[in-house]
Amino acid sequence: MKILFLGDVMGRAGRRAITERLAGLRARLKADLVIVNAENASGGRGATAGHAQLLLECGADALTLGDHAFDQKDMMAFIDREPRIIRPLNFAKEAPGRGATIVSDARGRKALITQALGQVFMSRPYDDPFSALDAVLRAHPPGGMVQAVLVDIHAEATSEKMAIGHFCDGRASLVVGTHTHVPTGDAQVLPRGTAYLSDAGMCGDYDSVIGMDKAEPMRRFITGMSRDRFTPAEGEATICGVLVQTDDRTGMATAVEPVRDGGRLAQTHPA
User: Fold this and answer.
1) Can you tell me the distance from the alpha carbon of 108 to that of 175, in angstroms, rounded to the nearest whole number?
2) Which of 12, 109, 147, 169 could form a disulfide bond with 192, CB atoms 3.0-4.6 angstroms apart?
């Protein structure tokens, strides 16, 4: 099975890139499933129900969120009605929605999609991601009732993401990091067969400061003072993510490669 995972969709530029280019990218890469992180799809803070529905209609088979999961209030009700959207397993005990879902490709092969939040340098102390993931992975071994398992670790610290990768090695097809918006160059298959990438990057305008228009972030760094709100940059977006190929029998990865499509990054890193 080939699974394409795309990093944080950032604002209007990211949504436009998915709307205009996802179908062609999926066909070119021959992806059986497409999973998209929609964490920043609406103005850089969460996803509205309408924007989430748009991403699904454009070809995403499932959406993951993150620490901004419920910044857009209509998501709190919508997530209970839409099983293809998941929030982090360890977001909060009373959070609506689910932390894992199972999707099927055109051939009926199933993949478990799950997500956890890191604890290091994050905005608040979330529950332990290791124990949260352990329970889900024990119940869904790859190569059993599901042919693949994808883990989105939404975290700030690369060390924590790497620890999650090794913790899941042999129990997941892919562990991929999100949240920092900066794609990393460490795509690899770990010793027990799990593909790993510290961060998929964002689907957004890279002529920016992690997706935000440059002026206000630079002003705050240089002067220590704020003047305006952060607003997403709206130039041409680079679609960033990772493509993993798995063995249906074992669920383990046989190949993994980063994906860059359009925008500034694709000028030097073609898909």
Assistant:
1) 22
2) 169
Reply yes or no on whether 51 is catalytic: no
Identify the CATH number of the domain in which residue 84 sits.
Answer: 3.60.21.10
User: For residue 254, is pLDDT > 60?
Assistant: yes
Catalytic residue (choose from 51, 68, 140, 179): 68
Q: pLDDT tens for residues 110-125? A: 999 999 999 999 988 8
| Alpha carbon distance 256, 111 (integer Å) | 17
Instruction: Report the C-alpha gap between 138 and 171 in whole angstroms.
Output: 8
Give the DSSP letter string of 202-260.
EEB-SSSBTTB-SHHHHHHHHHS---S---B--SPPBEEEEEEEE-TTT--EEEEEEEE
pLDDT number for residue 271: 52
Taking only the tens place, the pLDDT of each residue in 49-81 is: 999 999 999 999 999 999 999 999 999 999 999
pTM for this model (two decimals): 0.96
Amino acid, res. 44: G
For residue 103, the surrounding DSSP H or E stretch is strand 100-104
Domain extent, residue 56, equals 2-267
The CB-side HSE value for 118 (13 A sphere, CA atoms) comes to 24
Comparing CA positions, the residue from 34, 68, 39, 33 lying closest to residue 51 is: 39
Structure tokens at 54: 């748009």
The encoded tokens of residue 271 equal 């898909």
Phi and psi at residue 193, in whole multiples of 5°? 105, 5
